[in-house]
Amino acid sequence: MRKIQGPAFVAAPLLTLSLAFAQAPTTQPSSSRAPVRPSPATTSSTNAANPLDQADLTAFFDGILPLQLERSDIGGAAVMVMKDGNILLEKGYGYADVRRGKPVDPAATIFRLASISKLFTWISIMQLEEQGKVDLDTDVNQYLDFRIRPAFNKPITLRNLMTHTAGFEDTFDDVIIFDSKKTITLRDYLLHNQPTRIFPPGEIPAYSNYGVGLASYIVQRVSGEPFAQYVHEHIFAPLGMTHSSFYQPLEKPLAGLQSRGYLHKTTSPPVGFEFWSPLGSGAASSSAGDMGRFGQALLNGGELDGKRILKPETLALMWTPQFSASDQLPPICMGFYQSWRNHLRWIGHTGDLIDFHSLFFVEPTQKIVLFVSYNSAGASALARPEILRFFSDRYFPGAPAVQYLNLPAKDLKDIEGTYQSTRRAETTKFKLSTLFSQRSTTVNKEGELILSHSRDLRDHPIKWKPIGKDLWQAEGEQQRIFAVRDKNNNIVRLAFDFPAAQLERVPWYENESWILIAFSCSFGILALIILTNLLRAWKHLIHRGRPMPEPQPRTMGLPAASRFAAYLWIALLAALFDYFIRANDNLMLPSPAWFKWMALENFAAMLAIVLSTLTVIAGVESWSKDLRFLTKLKFSLVALACLFMSWFAIHWHIIGPTHRI
């Protein structure tokens, strides 16, 4: 499921993760540790750069895009490449509507931008900052008509929101709704889905759609204009972006231009319009042509065709690094994040909905704009991550030289362990999903770091080699890992090339290595009870009218509470895991329609815990009775299984809320 590439929910790949404000302590890479025997420098191809012109770009994308569409069952895509303000390529591939055979028109076909939308939110915030209407370092509660709950004795600021360091846990409720009658306002979404703060602000990155939505509501509150209208009036209209909108659904003149979106198979019916919440974090729609104009304005210091959306110094501030675990990794700036390849410093954002997957980056030094958008779910795993890499290697080849360090494996072992993403649900039912997304690290005898589920585009395991103090680089590639240490010099997190999230070491009591074993044993014991009961019922059926054999002396059957507890736990957990499997396969997100089933789940879990309590009491009491040892052991094993399941349900919030209000 997880390559270290871009942000998304559930089925998307893992997020490919200066001013002193909010910067975490860093450890500078060093090659001074002994013994050091440098291996050959890592470099990319030494071939000369291809000419960055229309002919070569056409050949490049005509080679890769049709292959991607066929391989990953993608309906269509649009591409925009600009250099020095000139359009070098603006082209559509495949279909905007597969059934009707409607081709993608790069100038007119509208794609959903998903998280690229965040850039417009941050530009809106900075426009208000230019006018003195907001302060980036003031408690955001100053601009709201409801309160963000206090935590850590420290308020959240707009700068925290822009760098994803507000410390919110992740929340999934109401994010995507397909029925327009069930949509809610921006304010209601923020009010009813406020997540718990799990990290102190300004210290640990945890990518948050809620935080960006909060900023879009601040834009709405401070400006006095609905957010979608504000962006239209102050960004889209001045830049001549006539095929762009935050309205959901799209306005009538634009609705007919929207590309259809597809899930697993383009032969299946298209996914309906995805009403995204919160608005400013992912609701924008645009065309490749419009995104070219947006990129041109950014590279021109915030101005296009005599219309200015930002002052040059404001835009320069937005592109100034704000947070990074190490200066050897790409930083997050003010809303924009950097992606490094060869000697390029791309800056922009990617975006993922269920079906649409896009990237938008500019390279300020080379004055390049690159935008690609796909209309099918198959693009998330391979297609989109390939583009920036292959483009950079073709036109700007030559990776920065790096020396691998040959260090004894025993000196590297402190990085080993199990980790989970800082972008996670922690206090709601969706905490359970983190159990199945933990990542383990091991160091082999060659001193290479192996990170579970970390695979390259060929689906080969990635081997990471040390290149400095706590700094690792993928063998033959450019991705890096930096080990973040606490004040006691213990490795507590791992940072990657995507700076808006990290991996955090899992506490021992949440480590999947023992939890899944204990869970499997407990599940097996309870399943065995059910099987035994069914066999006994079958025997009663076939011996109907005949006497049953007498039980052995000093034996006792399990009480009814224990048997009912077993049935409840098995049914509840089977249903829950079936949901997670189907949700992952079909990219289902929770909505209010699910809440009645969540309430039923809470009731079933509570009843199972009550019955489990009686089972534990029976298990303890069995040792004071004149029973066979095997009978006492049976009672005790069932009691332990029920006790573990009760802890599991409480700790992982199987019983509990879907969101915090």
Task: Name the CATH class of the largest domain.
Answer: Alpha Beta
The overall strand count is: 23
Strand order of the largest sheet: 16-17-18-19-20-21-22-23
* Quaternary structure annotation: single chain
The H-level CATH homologous superfamily of the largest domain, spelled out, is: DD-peptidase/beta-lactamase superfamily
Low-pLDDT residue spans: 1-45
Helix proportion of residues, in percent? 25-40%
Can you summarize the main beta sheet? 8 strands, antiparallel, barrel
Question: What is the CA-based Rg, rounded?
Answer: 28 Å
The averaged pLDDT comes out at 89
Characterize the overall form.
globular
CATH architecture descriptor name of the largest domain = 3-Layer(aba) Sandwich
Report, as a whole number of angstroms, the end-to-end distance. Answer: 31 Å
CATH topology-level fold name of the largest domain: Beta-lactamase
Strand content: 15-25%
Entry keywords:
single chain, 661 residues, alpha+beta, Beta-lactamase, 3 domains, 8-stranded antiparallel beta barrel, 7-stranded antiparallel β-sheet, 15 helices, 23 strands, 33% helix, globular, disordered N terminus
